[in-house]
Amino acid sequence: MRRRIRLIVEYNGTAYSGWQRQSNAVSVQQKLEESLRKLTGESELYVVGASRTDAGVHALGQNAHFDTFSRIPADKFSFALNTMLPPDIRVCESSCVSDAFHARFSAVGKEYRYLFYVHPHSSALYRDLCAHVIYPLNKEAIRAESELLLGRHDFSAFAASGSEAKDTVREIKQISIRDNAPFLEMRIYGTGFLYNMVRIIAGTLIGVGSGKLESGCIGRALATGDRLCLGVTAPAQGLTLMRVDYPEEVCLPPT
Amino acid sequence: MRRRIRLIVEYNGTAYSGWQRQSNAVSVQQKLEESLRKLTGESELYVVGASRTDAGVHALGQNAHFDTFSRIPADKFSFALNTMLPPDIRVCESSCVSDAFHARFSAVGKEYRYLFYVHPHSSALYRDLCAHVIYPLNKEAIRAESELLLGRHDFSAFAASGSEAKDTVREIKQISIRDNAPFLEMRIYGTGFLYNMVRIIAGTLIGVGSGKLESGCIGRALATGDRLCLGVTAPAQGLTLMRVDYPEEVCLPPT
Description:
Two copies of one chain form a homodimer. The first copy, chain A, is of the alpha+beta class and 255 residues long. Chain A has helices spanning 28-40, 77-82, 139-146, 197-209, 217-224; strands spanning 3-11, 48-49, 58-68, 89-97, 109-118, 131-133, 151-154, 169-180, 183-190, 239-245. Chain A folds into two domains: 3-106, Pseudouridine synthase I, catalytic domain, N-terminal subdomain (Alpha-Beta Plaits, 2-Layer Sandwich), CATH 3.30.70.580; 109-242, Pseudouridine synthase I, catalytic domain, C-terminal subdomain (Alpha-Beta Plaits, 2-Layer Sandwich), CATH 3.30.70. Chain A is built from five helices and ten strands. In chain A, strands 1, 2, 3, 4, 5, 6, 7, 8, 9 and 10 form a ten-stranded mixed sheet that branches. In chain A, helix 3 packs across helix 4.
Protein backbone atom coordinates (compact mmCIF):
# COMPACT_ATOMS: atom_id res chain seq x y z
CA MET A 1 0.00 0.00 0.00
CA ARG A 2 1.28 3.44 -0.89
CA ARG A 3 1.61 5.86 2.04
CA ARG A 4 2.52 9.52 2.29
CA ILE A 5 5.21 10.32 4.86
CA ARG A 6 5.87 13.75 6.33
CA LEU A 7 9.37 14.70 7.50
CA ILE A 8 10.47 17.59 9.74
CA VAL A 9 14.05 18.33 8.73
CA GLU A 10 16.87 20.33 10.35
CA TYR A 11 20.02 21.31 8.46
CA ASN A 12 23.04 23.55 8.53
CA GLY A 13 23.00 24.99 5.02
CA THR A 14 26.68 26.02 4.95
CA ALA A 15 27.84 23.06 2.86
CA TYR A 16 24.83 22.91 0.51
CA SER A 17 23.68 24.65 -2.63
CA GLY A 18 20.28 25.04 -0.98
CA TRP A 19 17.25 22.81 -0.59
CA GLN A 20 16.51 22.14 -4.25
CA ARG A 21 18.17 19.44 -6.35
CA GLN A 22 20.64 20.87 -8.92
CA SER A 23 22.71 19.22 -11.59
CA ASN A 24 26.16 20.45 -10.51
CA ALA A 25 25.94 20.98 -6.75
CA VAL A 26 24.96 19.09 -3.61
CA SER A 27 21.53 19.96 -2.20
CA VAL A 28 19.64 18.89 0.92
CA GLN A 29 16.83 17.41 -1.21
CA GLN A 30 19.34 15.25 -3.08
CA LYS A 31 20.87 13.92 0.16
CA LEU A 32 17.39 13.01 1.47
CA GLU A 33 16.34 11.38 -1.81
CA GLU A 34 19.57 9.35 -2.06
CA SER A 35 19.12 8.06 1.50
CA LEU A 36 15.42 7.28 1.01
CA ARG A 37 16.04 5.46 -2.29
CA LYS A 38 18.68 3.31 -0.63
CA LEU A 39 16.41 2.68 2.37
CA THR A 40 13.25 1.77 0.40
CA GLY A 41 14.79 0.39 -2.80
CA GLU A 42 12.47 2.74 -4.73
CA SER A 43 14.50 4.48 -7.45
CA GLU A 44 11.68 6.85 -8.39
CA LEU A 45 11.16 8.29 -4.92
CA TYR A 46 10.98 12.12 -4.84
CA VAL A 47 10.92 14.44 -1.84
CA VAL A 48 8.83 17.64 -1.93
CA GLY A 49 9.94 20.44 0.40
CA ALA A 50 7.88 23.27 1.90
CA SER A 51 10.46 25.96 1.22
CA ARG A 52 13.21 26.07 -1.40
CA THR A 53 15.84 27.60 0.90
CA ASP A 54 18.88 29.20 -0.78
CA ALA A 55 22.51 28.12 -0.52
CA GLY A 56 23.79 28.78 3.01
CA VAL A 57 20.30 29.18 4.54
CA HIS A 58 19.59 26.90 7.52
CA ALA A 59 16.48 25.13 8.76
CA LEU A 60 15.33 23.97 12.16
CA GLY A 61 11.82 23.10 10.95
CA GLN A 62 11.80 22.50 7.19
CA ASN A 63 8.94 20.21 6.18
CA ALA A 64 8.87 17.67 3.36
CA HIS A 65 6.86 14.71 2.12
CA PHE A 66 7.32 11.66 -0.08
CA ASP A 67 5.23 8.70 -1.17
CA THR A 68 6.39 5.13 -0.63
CA PHE A 69 5.33 1.48 -0.73
CA SER A 70 7.87 0.63 1.98
CA ARG A 71 6.55 -1.09 5.13
CA ILE A 72 8.95 0.71 7.47
CA PRO A 73 6.85 2.13 10.37
CA ALA A 74 6.36 5.86 9.69
CA ASP A 75 8.02 7.06 12.90
CA LYS A 76 11.10 4.89 12.22
CA PHE A 77 12.09 6.74 9.02
CA SER A 78 13.73 9.50 11.07
CA PHE A 79 16.00 7.08 12.93
CA ALA A 80 16.86 5.08 9.80
CA LEU A 81 17.59 8.21 7.74
CA ASN A 82 19.78 9.72 10.47
CA THR A 83 22.12 6.73 10.28
CA MET A 84 22.63 7.45 6.54
CA LEU A 85 22.56 11.26 6.29
CA PRO A 86 25.59 13.51 6.86
CA PRO A 87 25.63 15.03 10.39
CA ASP A 88 24.63 18.51 9.13
CA ILE A 89 21.22 17.14 8.02
CA ARG A 90 18.86 15.54 10.56
CA VAL A 91 15.30 14.30 10.32
CA CYS A 92 13.66 15.31 13.62
CA GLU A 93 10.30 13.63 13.05
CA SER A 94 8.60 11.35 10.53
CA SER A 95 4.90 10.55 10.46
CA CYS A 96 2.20 9.12 8.17
CA VAL A 97 -0.15 11.78 6.81
CA SER A 98 -3.20 11.85 4.57
CA ASP A 99 -2.83 12.35 0.81
CA ALA A 100 -4.22 15.85 1.39
CA PHE A 101 -0.90 16.82 2.98
CA HIS A 102 1.41 18.57 0.53
CA ALA A 103 4.56 20.04 2.13
CA ARG A 104 4.51 23.07 -0.14
CA PHE A 105 0.88 23.69 -1.11
CA SER A 106 -0.79 22.84 2.23
CA ALA A 107 1.44 25.20 4.25
CA VAL A 108 -0.56 27.98 5.92
CA GLY A 109 2.25 29.72 7.82
CA LYS A 110 6.03 29.90 8.01
CA GLU A 111 8.37 31.35 10.61
CA TYR A 112 11.87 32.57 9.78
CA ARG A 113 14.65 33.87 12.04
CA TYR A 114 17.35 36.27 10.94
CA LEU A 115 20.38 36.71 13.21
CA PHE A 116 22.65 39.76 13.10
CA TYR A 117 25.93 39.92 15.00
CA VAL A 118 26.46 43.60 15.89
CA HIS A 119 30.10 44.08 16.87
CA PRO A 120 33.25 45.83 15.54
CA HIS A 121 34.74 42.36 14.83
CA SER A 122 32.96 39.44 13.19
CA SER A 123 32.01 36.32 15.18
CA ALA A 124 34.50 33.43 15.11
CA LEU A 125 32.29 30.98 17.01
CA TYR A 126 28.91 31.62 15.36
CA ARG A 127 30.05 32.86 11.95
CA ASP A 128 27.94 30.40 9.90
CA LEU A 129 24.77 31.35 11.80
CA CYS A 130 24.67 35.13 11.57
CA ALA A 131 25.42 38.15 9.42
CA HIS A 132 27.98 40.66 10.67
CA VAL A 133 26.99 44.30 11.23
CA ILE A 134 29.95 46.52 12.13
CA TYR A 135 28.14 49.75 13.08
CA PRO A 136 25.79 50.20 16.04
CA LEU A 137 22.06 50.10 15.27
CA ASN A 138 19.05 52.17 16.30
CA LYS A 139 16.86 49.35 17.55
CA GLU A 140 13.81 51.52 18.11
CA ALA A 141 13.93 52.71 14.49
CA ILE A 142 14.19 49.06 13.36
CA ARG A 143 11.21 48.03 15.52
CA ALA A 144 9.03 50.90 14.28
CA GLU A 145 9.94 50.21 10.64
CA SER A 146 9.32 46.47 11.01
CA GLU A 147 5.72 47.09 12.11
CA LEU A 148 4.93 48.63 8.71
CA LEU A 149 5.18 45.08 7.32
CA LEU A 150 2.30 43.73 9.41
CA GLY A 151 -0.88 42.81 7.60
CA ARG A 152 -1.88 41.86 4.08
CA HIS A 153 0.05 43.68 1.34
CA ASP A 154 1.30 43.37 -2.22
CA PHE A 155 4.98 42.61 -1.56
CA SER A 156 6.13 42.85 -5.21
CA ALA A 157 8.88 45.34 -4.22
CA PHE A 158 10.28 42.66 -1.86
CA ALA A 159 10.81 39.96 -4.50
CA ALA A 160 14.21 39.27 -6.03
CA SER A 161 14.30 39.77 -9.79
CA GLY A 162 14.40 36.00 -10.45
CA SER A 163 11.04 35.50 -8.72
CA GLU A 164 8.38 33.64 -10.70
CA ALA A 165 5.44 34.39 -8.39
CA LYS A 166 2.44 35.92 -10.15
CA ASP A 167 0.40 36.61 -7.04
CA THR A 168 2.62 38.79 -4.83
CA VAL A 169 0.08 39.39 -2.04
CA ARG A 170 1.18 37.92 1.29
CA GLU A 171 0.22 38.44 4.92
CA ILE A 172 2.76 39.09 7.68
CA LYS A 173 1.14 38.12 10.96
CA GLN A 174 3.96 38.68 13.44
CA ILE A 175 7.36 40.32 13.48
CA SER A 176 9.63 40.77 16.48
CA ILE A 177 13.06 42.28 17.07
CA ARG A 178 14.89 40.91 20.10
CA ASP A 179 18.06 42.46 21.45
CA ASN A 180 20.39 39.80 22.83
CA ALA A 181 23.67 41.71 22.48
CA PRO A 182 25.90 41.23 20.56
CA PHE A 183 23.06 39.49 18.63
CA LEU A 184 19.98 41.15 17.21
CA GLU A 185 17.30 38.58 16.34
CA MET A 186 14.47 39.18 13.90
CA ARG A 187 11.56 36.68 13.83
CA ILE A 188 8.92 36.91 11.14
CA TYR A 189 5.78 34.83 10.68
CA GLY A 190 3.56 35.00 7.63
CA THR A 191 1.36 33.06 5.25
CA GLY A 192 4.22 32.77 2.79
CA PHE A 193 7.19 34.64 1.41
CA LEU A 194 8.39 35.61 -2.06
CA TYR A 195 11.85 34.62 -3.28
CA ASN A 196 14.49 36.41 -1.11
CA MET A 197 11.74 38.39 0.65
CA VAL A 198 12.96 37.72 4.21
CA ARG A 199 16.55 38.59 3.30
CA ILE A 200 15.42 41.83 1.61
CA ILE A 201 13.39 42.71 4.73
CA ALA A 202 16.43 41.97 6.95
CA GLY A 203 18.75 44.06 4.76
CA THR A 204 16.24 46.93 4.73
CA LEU A 205 15.78 46.95 8.52
CA ILE A 206 19.57 47.07 8.99
CA GLY A 207 19.70 49.94 6.49
CA VAL A 208 17.12 51.85 8.54
CA GLY A 209 18.84 50.98 11.85
CA SER A 210 22.21 52.24 10.62
CA GLY A 211 20.76 55.43 9.09
CA LYS A 212 21.60 54.45 5.49
CA LEU A 213 17.90 54.28 4.62
CA GLU A 214 15.17 56.69 5.66
CA SER A 215 12.47 55.61 8.07
CA GLY A 216 9.24 54.83 6.24
CA CYS A 217 10.96 53.29 3.22
CA ILE A 218 9.02 50.06 3.75
CA GLY A 219 5.74 51.98 3.56
CA ARG A 220 6.87 53.63 0.32
CA ALA A 221 7.94 50.28 -1.16
CA LEU A 222 4.56 48.73 -0.31
CA ALA A 223 2.75 51.68 -1.89
CA THR A 224 4.85 51.91 -5.05
CA GLY A 225 6.15 48.38 -5.61
CA ASP A 226 9.61 49.84 -6.16
CA ARG A 227 12.50 47.57 -5.14
CA LEU A 228 14.84 50.59 -5.14
CA CYS A 229 13.13 51.97 -2.01
CA LEU A 230 14.59 49.04 -0.09
CA GLY A 231 18.00 47.91 1.17
CA VAL A 232 20.37 45.18 0.04
CA THR A 233 19.55 41.48 0.27
CA ALA A 234 21.06 40.36 3.61
CA PRO A 235 23.53 37.40 3.50
CA ALA A 236 22.13 33.85 3.42
CA GLN A 237 23.90 32.52 6.51
CA GLY A 238 21.88 34.70 8.92
CA LEU A 239 18.60 33.07 7.87
CA THR A 240 16.95 30.00 9.42
CA LEU A 241 13.56 28.49 8.55
CA MET A 242 12.12 27.80 12.00
CA ARG A 243 8.70 26.26 11.43
CA VAL A 244 6.06 25.49 8.83
CA ASP A 245 2.40 25.28 9.89
CA TYR A 246 -0.36 23.16 8.31
CA PRO A 247 -4.07 22.71 8.97
CA GLU A 248 -4.43 20.04 11.64
CA GLU A 249 -6.62 17.77 9.50
CA VAL A 250 -4.04 17.20 6.72
CA CYS A 251 -1.40 16.11 9.27
CA LEU A 252 -3.45 13.12 10.46
CA PRO A 253 -2.89 9.61 9.04
CA PRO A 254 -5.46 8.45 6.45
CA THR A 255 -8.47 6.76 8.05
CA MET B 1 60.51 50.43 23.60
CA ARG B 2 59.23 46.99 24.44
CA ARG B 3 55.55 46.77 25.36
CA ARG B 4 53.33 43.97 26.62
CA ILE B 5 50.06 43.57 24.70
CA ARG B 6 47.01 41.70 26.01
CA LEU B 7 44.62 40.02 23.56
CA ILE B 8 41.08 38.77 24.14
CA VAL B 9 40.57 35.99 21.61
CA GLU B 10 37.48 34.19 20.29
CA TYR B 11 37.71 30.97 18.28
CA ASN B 12 35.75 28.05 16.97
CA GLY B 13 37.99 25.13 17.95
CA THR B 14 36.54 22.63 15.44
CA ALA B 15 39.39 22.96 12.91
CA TYR B 16 42.25 23.20 15.43
CA SER B 17 44.37 20.82 17.46
CA GLY B 18 43.72 23.08 20.46
CA TRP B 19 45.31 26.26 21.74
CA GLN B 20 48.88 25.06 22.12
CA ARG B 21 51.48 24.96 19.35
CA GLN B 22 52.23 21.41 18.16
CA SER B 23 54.67 20.07 15.63
CA ASN B 24 52.22 18.20 13.36
CA ALA B 25 48.91 20.01 13.71
CA VAL B 26 47.46 23.50 13.37
CA SER B 27 46.83 25.30 16.66
CA VAL B 28 45.26 28.65 17.54
CA GLN B 29 48.52 29.83 19.16
CA GLN B 30 50.42 29.09 15.93
CA LYS B 31 47.91 31.05 13.81
CA LEU B 32 48.23 34.05 16.16
CA GLU B 33 52.04 33.87 16.26
CA GLU B 34 52.31 33.58 12.46
CA SER B 35 50.09 36.65 11.99
CA LEU B 36 51.89 38.68 14.67
CA ARG B 37 55.35 37.80 13.28
CA LYS B 38 54.26 38.93 9.83
CA LEU B 39 52.71 42.11 11.26
CA THR B 40 55.65 43.14 13.47
CA GLY B 41 58.55 41.60 11.54
CA GLU B 42 59.67 40.02 14.85
CA SER B 43 60.56 36.38 14.21
CA GLU B 44 60.97 35.56 17.89
CA LEU B 45 57.55 36.72 18.99
CA TYR B 46 55.71 34.25 21.25
CA VAL B 47 52.11 34.32 22.47
CA VAL B 48 51.22 33.07 25.98
CA GLY B 49 47.64 31.93 26.51
CA ALA B 50 45.60 31.78 29.73
CA SER B 51 44.18 28.33 29.08
CA ARG B 52 45.53 25.51 26.94
CA THR B 53 42.18 24.48 25.51
CA ASP B 54 41.95 21.01 23.91
CA ALA B 55 41.26 20.16 20.28
CA GLY B 56 37.65 21.05 19.43
CA VAL B 57 37.15 23.28 22.51
CA HIS B 58 35.94 26.83 21.75
CA ALA B 59 36.62 30.20 23.32
CA LEU B 60 34.65 33.42 23.49
CA GLY B 61 37.05 35.01 26.00
CA GLN B 62 40.47 33.36 25.83
CA ASN B 63 43.22 35.74 27.00
CA ALA B 64 46.80 35.93 25.76
CA HIS B 65 49.81 38.24 25.87
CA PHE B 66 52.98 38.91 23.88
CA ASP B 67 55.90 41.36 24.04
CA THR B 68 56.80 43.53 21.08
CA PHE B 69 58.94 46.49 19.98
CA SER B 70 56.37 47.36 17.28
CA ARG B 71 54.94 50.89 17.34
CA ILE B 72 51.45 49.80 16.22
CA PRO B 73 48.92 51.42 18.63
CA ALA B 74 47.86 48.73 21.12
CA ASP B 75 44.15 48.89 20.27
CA LYS B 76 44.90 48.54 16.53
CA PHE B 77 46.42 45.04 16.86
CA SER B 78 42.91 43.49 16.92
CA PHE B 79 41.89 45.11 13.62
CA ALA B 80 45.23 44.33 11.93
CA LEU B 81 45.24 40.71 13.12
CA ASN B 82 41.65 40.12 12.02
CA THR B 83 42.58 40.95 8.42
CA MET B 84 45.21 38.17 8.54
CA LEU B 85 43.63 35.46 10.72
CA PRO B 86 41.24 32.76 9.40
CA PRO B 87 37.56 33.66 10.07
CA ASP B 88 37.22 31.07 12.85
CA ILE B 89 39.74 33.02 14.99
CA ARG B 90 39.02 36.62 15.97
CA VAL B 91 40.82 39.04 18.28
CA CYS B 92 38.04 40.95 20.08
CA GLU B 93 40.25 43.38 21.98
CA SER B 94 43.92 44.37 22.24
CA SER B 95 45.38 46.64 24.90
CA CYS B 96 48.71 47.63 26.43
CA VAL B 97 49.24 46.17 29.92
CA SER B 98 51.92 46.35 32.59
CA ASP B 99 54.71 43.75 32.68
CA ALA B 100 52.97 42.34 35.76
CA PHE B 101 50.24 40.98 33.46
CA HIS B 102 50.79 37.31 32.60
CA ALA B 103 47.89 35.70 30.71
CA ARG B 104 48.34 32.40 32.52
CA PHE B 105 49.86 33.16 35.92
CA SER B 106 47.96 36.38 36.72
CA ALA B 107 44.53 34.82 36.09
CA VAL B 108 42.36 34.78 39.22
CA GLY B 109 39.16 33.31 37.75
CA LYS B 110 37.85 31.48 34.68
CA GLU B 111 34.36 30.82 33.44
CA TYR B 112 33.48 27.86 31.21
CA ARG B 113 30.21 26.91 29.53
CA TYR B 114 29.23 23.36 28.63
CA LEU B 115 26.29 22.87 26.25
CA PHE B 116 24.30 19.64 26.05
CA TYR B 117 21.73 19.00 23.33
CA VAL B 118 19.08 16.74 24.88
CA HIS B 119 17.03 15.22 22.08
CA PRO B 120 16.44 11.79 20.48
CA HIS B 121 18.28 13.05 17.35
CA SER B 122 21.54 15.00 17.28
CA SER B 123 21.63 18.68 16.28
CA ALA B 124 22.38 19.43 12.63
CA LEU B 125 22.57 23.20 13.04
CA TYR B 126 24.56 23.46 16.28
CA ARG B 127 26.51 20.20 16.13
CA ASP B 128 29.97 21.77 16.62
CA LEU B 129 28.83 23.67 19.71
CA CYS B 130 27.23 21.01 21.88
CA ALA B 131 27.37 17.39 23.01
CA HIS B 132 24.42 15.15 22.21
CA VAL B 133 22.49 13.43 25.02
CA ILE B 134 19.86 11.00 23.73
CA TYR B 135 18.02 10.17 26.98
CA PRO B 136 15.97 12.64 29.07
CA LEU B 137 17.71 14.04 32.16
CA ASN B 138 16.69 14.62 35.78
CA LYS B 139 17.63 18.30 35.99
CA GLU B 140 16.96 18.56 39.72
CA ALA B 141 19.37 15.69 40.41
CA ILE B 142 21.98 17.44 38.23
CA ARG B 143 21.51 20.75 40.05
CA ALA B 144 21.77 19.15 43.51
CA GLU B 145 24.88 17.17 42.52
CA SER B 146 26.54 20.23 40.97
CA GLU B 147 26.32 22.12 44.25
CA LEU B 148 28.63 19.57 45.89
CA LEU B 149 31.43 21.11 43.78
CA LEU B 150 31.12 24.56 45.35
CA GLY B 151 33.96 25.72 47.58
CA ARG B 152 37.62 24.90 48.01
CA HIS B 153 38.50 21.22 47.50
CA ASP B 154 41.26 18.87 46.43
CA PHE B 155 40.07 18.01 42.91
CA SER B 156 42.66 15.30 42.22
CA ALA B 157 39.88 12.82 41.26
CA PHE B 158 38.82 15.27 38.53
CA ALA B 159 42.15 15.43 36.69
CA ALA B 160 42.81 13.43 33.54
CA SER B 161 45.70 10.98 33.88
CA GLY B 162 48.00 13.17 31.76
CA SER B 163 47.71 16.06 34.23
CA GLU B 164 51.00 17.48 35.52
CA ALA B 165 49.53 19.65 38.28
CA LYS B 166 51.10 19.05 41.70
CA ASP B 167 48.76 21.29 43.65
CA THR B 168 45.27 19.95 42.93
CA VAL B 169 43.37 22.28 45.26
CA ARG B 170 40.97 24.59 43.41
CA GLU B 171 37.97 26.70 44.36
CA ILE B 172 34.66 26.57 42.49
CA LYS B 173 32.84 29.82 43.18
CA GLN B 174 29.73 29.46 41.03
CA ILE B 175 27.96 26.73 39.10
CA SER B 176 24.62 27.01 37.35
CA ILE B 177 22.45 24.66 35.28
CA ARG B 178 20.08 26.42 32.89
CA ASP B 179 17.32 24.59 31.05
CA ASN B 180 16.81 26.05 27.59
CA ALA B 181 15.26 22.98 25.93
CA PRO B 182 16.49 21.21 23.87
CA PHE B 183 19.71 22.68 25.34
CA LEU B 184 20.97 22.21 28.89
CA GLU B 185 23.66 24.76 29.74
CA MET B 186 26.19 24.37 32.53
CA ARG B 187 28.23 27.42 33.59
CA ILE B 188 31.10 27.03 36.02
CA TYR B 189 33.35 29.70 37.51
CA GLY B 190 36.43 28.96 39.58
CA THR B 191 39.96 30.03 40.44
CA GLY B 192 41.35 27.50 37.99
CA PHE B 193 40.77 24.04 36.59
CA LEU B 194 42.88 20.89 36.24
CA TYR B 195 43.41 19.26 32.85
CA ASN B 196 40.01 17.98 31.56
CA MET B 197 38.35 18.91 34.88
CA VAL B 198 35.36 20.74 33.35
CA ARG B 199 34.72 17.93 30.87
CA ILE B 200 34.89 15.32 33.65
CA ILE B 201 32.42 17.41 35.72
CA ALA B 202 30.10 17.69 32.68
CA GLY B 203 30.28 13.95 32.00
CA THR B 204 29.62 13.15 35.66
CA LEU B 205 26.59 15.45 35.92
CA ILE B 206 25.08 13.84 32.81
CA GLY B 207 25.75 10.43 34.37
CA VAL B 208 23.84 11.47 37.49
CA GLY B 209 21.03 13.09 35.45
CA SER B 210 20.53 9.95 33.39
CA GLY B 211 20.66 7.60 36.37
CA LYS B 212 23.90 5.88 35.29
CA LEU B 213 25.73 7.28 38.32
CA GLU B 214 24.46 7.49 41.89
CA SER B 215 23.71 10.86 43.46
CA GLY B 216 26.51 11.90 45.80
CA CYS B 217 29.30 10.47 43.62
CA ILE B 218 30.94 13.91 43.45
CA GLY B 219 31.10 14.06 47.25
CA ARG B 220 32.67 10.60 47.33
CA ALA B 221 35.21 11.56 44.65
CA LEU B 222 36.20 14.69 46.59
CA ALA B 223 36.61 12.66 49.78
CA THR B 224 38.56 9.76 48.27
CA GLY B 225 40.35 11.27 45.25
CA ASP B 226 39.13 8.30 43.20
CA ARG B 227 38.58 9.06 39.48
CA LEU B 228 36.48 5.88 39.21
CA CYS B 229 33.67 7.46 41.29
CA LEU B 230 33.09 9.83 38.36
CA GLY B 231 31.64 9.69 34.85
CA VAL B 232 33.22 9.81 31.43
CA THR B 233 35.04 12.86 30.06
CA ALA B 234 32.36 14.74 28.06
CA PRO B 235 33.18 15.53 24.39
CA ALA B 236 35.34 18.58 23.62
CA GLN B 237 32.91 20.37 21.28
CA GLY B 238 30.42 21.16 24.06
CA LEU B 239 32.99 23.25 25.95
CA THR B 240 33.61 27.00 25.58
CA LEU B 241 36.01 29.17 27.61
CA MET B 242 33.85 32.22 28.30
CA ARG B 243 36.02 34.59 30.33
CA VAL B 244 39.30 34.95 32.21
CA ASP B 245 39.51 37.42 35.11
CA TYR B 246 42.61 39.29 36.31
CA PRO B 247 43.30 41.74 39.14
CA GLU B 248 42.47 45.23 37.86
CA GLU B 249 45.94 46.64 38.52
CA VAL B 250 47.81 44.26 36.16
CA CYS B 251 45.48 45.17 33.27
CA LEU B 252 46.48 48.85 33.27
CA PRO B 253 49.19 50.18 30.94
CA PRO B 254 52.64 50.80 32.55
CA THR B 255 52.94 54.27 34.08
